[in-house]
From TrEMBL:
<dbReference type="Pfam" id="PF01553">
    <property type="entry name" value="Acyltransferase"/>
</dbReference>
<keyword id="KW-0012">Acyltransferase</keyword>
<keyword id="KW-1133">Transmembrane helix</keyword>
<dbReference type="GO" id="GO:0010143">
    <property type="term" value="P:cutin biosynthetic process"/>
</dbReference>
<keyword id="KW-0808">Transferase</keyword>
<feature type="transmembrane region" description="Helical">
    <location>
        <begin position="222"/>
        <end position="241"/>
    </location>
</feature>
<dbReference type="Pfam" id="PF23270">
    <property type="entry name" value="HAD_RAM2_N"/>
</dbReference>
<dbReference type="InterPro" id="IPR002123">
    <property type="entry name" value="Plipid/glycerol_acylTrfase"/>
</dbReference>
<feature type="domain" description="Phospholipid/glycerol acyltransferase">
    <location>
        <begin position="282"/>
        <end position="383"/>
    </location>
</feature>
<keyword id="KW-0812">Transmembrane</keyword>
<dbReference type="GO" id="GO:0016020">
    <property type="term" value="C:membrane"/>
</dbReference>
<dbReference type="GO" id="GO:0016791">
    <property type="term" value="F:phosphatase activity"/>
</dbReference>
<dbReference type="GO" id="GO:0090447">
    <property type="term" value="F:glycerol-3-phosphate 2-O-acyltransferase activity"/>
</dbReference>
<feature type="transmembrane region" description="Helical">
    <location>
        <begin position="20"/>
        <end position="45"/>
    </location>
</feature>
<keyword id="KW-0472">Membrane</keyword>
<protein>
    <recommendedName>
        <fullName>Phospholipid/glycerol acyltransferase domain-containing protein</fullName>
    </recommendedName>
</protein>
<dbReference type="InterPro" id="IPR056462">
    <property type="entry name" value="HAD_RAM2/GPAT1-8"/>
</dbReference>
Amino acid sequence: MESVVSELEGTLLKHLDIFSYFMLVAFEASGLIRFALLLILWPVVRLLDIFGMEEMALKVMIFVSSAGVPKTELESVARAVLPKFYMDDLDMEAWKVFISNDKRVVVTKMPRIMVERFVKEHLRADEVVGCELSFNGFGLATGMVQGDSISTISERVTMLFKEEDAPTLGMGRPSTSTYNSFSKLCKEQMHPPFLTSQKYDQVLRPLPVIFHDGRLVKRPTAFTSLLILLWIPIGILLAIIRITIGIILPFWAIPYLSTILGGNVIMKGKPPSPPSNGNPGVLFVCTHRTLLDPVVLGSVLQRKIPAVTYSISRFSEILSPIPTLRLTRIRNVDAEKIKRELSKGDLVVCPEGTTCREPFLLRFSALFAELTDRIVPVAMNYRVGFFHATTARGWKGLDPIFFFMNPRPIYEVTFLNQLPVEATCSSGKSPHDVANYVQRILAATLGFECTNFTRKDKYRVLAGNDGTVSYISLVDQITKVVNTFKPFLK
């Protein structure tokens, strides 16, 4: 049996610097004050690294980012926030070598609690060797680590292989103390850059990060973090101005002023005509990227179209410049509400039921297909620079504020043709067939992939209720569904 021991930083991950991951922990698990404090100490951390005091620099970052933080909060950040940034930094060539071995061990300088979920679920590692955070009796991190994190790596790797042969392969950078602590135990060594041969091309792909949380869009390096801190006061003021304009001004004026204030809405396709006596209302079926999807759609159409909502905050409803129809998730009750509203004119619905940040579409609820044949699919997408507009962990009432705090928020709205009668339930198709068809054509328009995931799957993954096995089974589902829909997306 072939085995591998690989360093995480600088090997499986492209970058050696781990400062940004502690910044993420500081921001997402604690808040802006701790985030700013750690950034202030960045020169100290760099000087300690330069003078060979790597262990001390690591302890400073661990202490400032975690001291006093509940263990549950650290686990939540490690589960819902960090994997996205790790995956973006993944060296695919290194991972191909890593996954081709039978037994896989990852060694990291970071606390094990920060990386274990990612490397076991997404990189399919068997074991993780990292320093252990200590917690007090109240479940709060002390900010200290148990033992000497780097010097004990060799002993812990030896323990993992004590009943077997020595590791077949060691992967890492010779310049790092982490790699040097275990490299002599391995029969062979490989160092970056990794230029893999064709024999590695058939290996499995890493499990994708489909659901993730957190407010920050970019990995907060020291420079990016400084920009974020300097921008926040300006962003808050800008968000207040943008939201106020959206509430008090007529819809026809919003696109012009949003451009002046840095925003932009790109419209593609031909929208349907407004409802009239000879032209009844339609149901706009949209992909769900942020809670602002219906508002942006209304601004493009220059009229206030009511939107179906599930779980937005009362604060967001108060700020909303369009009417909202709150559903109960009781099918027959919701069906009656939607029918009643459709009889009055146009209506907007996002049948995914929740947002997804990655290029995937969640499973569409089939309820909309049962209620009308006048269906207009609308592909919504957005781009932001600093802050995500939706969160599962924080207060949802701040979602619109964070969106409008971005320097240049951009929305893309693509109108597809109204579904022909033969593609609706009137032709005898089942509501599920209609919903799946709409999902496929919207995915093809955006270049996304269809999944069979639901709102419950998203929150189950982010909450971690089902553990590792359930997440892997969910990703297995997506593989099957994507393979099924690939012929339709070509």
